[in-house]
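Issue 218. Parser rejects a valid record. Input:
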Amino acid sequence: MSYGDDYDDTRARGVPAQTRTRLPDQPETGTRRSGSSPFRSIGAIVCVVVLLLAAIVFASQNRESSDDDARGGGGNGGTDQSRPTAPSGEQPVDGSFNGIPTGFSQDAQGAQSAAANYAVALGGTEMFNADQRRTVVETVSTAADRDDLLASYDRAYSPDLNERIGLDADGAAPAGSTFVNRTLPVGATATEVTDTTAEVSVWCAGLFGIAGTDSRTPVRTSWFTLHFTLAWEEGDWKVVRTEQTEGPTPVGGDDVVSGAEEIAEAAESYGGFTYAR
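Output the parser choked on:
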């Protein structure tokens, strides 16, 4: 999945300065007034400082209260509509089949968790091996749509694609190289959910390529969105169909590009995750 079309390719606050206006000298009409007491000036300064500190404390309390509301501490409980990608803290599943999480809850949260984990499964290195691809598709799809989905993926992950990338017929990289194909969900949103169907989109980043000194396809990143139509079948969410679109793509950073050996070591050392809403 993650290969996409690559190969079809404060300002500081302070007390305002006090402005004084000096009037022209006036003729004395009586006894001259004595100068102001220094204690009076000090008292005024102290009052200003106290007022400033009080204003800062008040503003800080208001900001903390706003933050609590945004996190769900307010009266509305922090709905999904206001925070569509906020983690719930709930465990997504307690089981798996063929290494793929299964047993998602029959609600919007469960549908989003299912879609995120299915995005990972359908966007991994296994999809470049015919037998492993069949296992993945049969695990995540509905019985009625299984054959059509498998045929579609067989066409997309063809032997010709493997050859152009630099893999063998079984999806293996040349000796001394590491094939990297990872889909990394960034967030999910459910646009429509009923008891039996769900439409879910998963925003993803991807890593794809072969890490090796002689690689013709070095590992690079991509951004894309996977759109799932899911159906509730035999106590779980299953895939009816999928679609992939490009982006949203953020501006690239100024990170230093790592060498092939470092990328290969990272791909082999860092495992993946079970994703939850």
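Fixed in the parser; the record now loads. Confidence is low (pLDDT under 50) at residues 9-34, 64-83.
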